[in-house]
Amino acid sequence: MTIKLRAVDEDDLPFLYKLTSDPDHTGIHQWYGWQNPHRLRRRWEDDGLVGDEGGMLIITKDDDRAGFVSWRKQITSRASFSWSMGLIVAPEFRGKGYGTEAQKLIVRYLFDHSTVNRIEAATEIGNLSEQRALEKAGFTREGVLRGSGFRAGRWHDGVLYGIVRADLDGEL
């Protein structure tokens, strides 16, 4: 399985909008309602969706767009921060291991291109496939976040996962 990450091009914006705003494409655990259709374009025009506070990259399988990964800065103290990351895989690419591989690639990318020591990811407690993917990508389950996310008219518990540089000793 060969997937890659690449920068977002302008012609990727409709694809990203569909994966973040269309309930048939977001997946049950990512549908938060309709989004501003201009939000991604404005961010892309501002910094290409890659900046000091976070970013977004396209997941590709051969020449096809398979989804995206994103990350944002989480301040952890006056002197440090971690990255909080997530992804959405397009429906036709789900269940094939591409999410796991994309998570491995974004972890390596973020550790290689920033001084951050910790990357975390959270998902709803009912999203068992994402939990398995995170564990296969080397993340450790750290705890349950009670009532942490509002979606579909109610509060949902989440699960927090983390990975630190030392977890990849010998691989970096």
TrEMBL record:
Name the coiled-coil region(s). Answer: none
Where would I find the N-acetyltransferase domain in this sequence?
3-166
Q: What InterPro entries does this protein's entry cite?
A: Acyl_CoA_acyltransferase, GNAT_dom, N-acetyltransferase
Name recorded for this polypeptide: RimJ/RimL family protein N-acetyltransferase
Keyword Transferase in the entry? The reply is yes
Among CDD domains, the record links this protein to: NAT_SF (cd04301)
| Natural source organism | Nonomuraea polychroma
Q: Which Pfam families match?
A: Acetyltransf_3
Q: What family is this?
A: Belongs to the acetyltransferase family. RimJ subfamily.
Keyword list (alphabetical) reads: Acyltransferase, Transferase
SUPFAM superfamilies referenced in this protein's UniProt entry, alphabetically? Acyl-CoA N-acyltransferases (Nat)
Q: Which GO MF terms does the UniProt record name?
A: acyltransferase activity, transferring groups other than amino-acyl groups
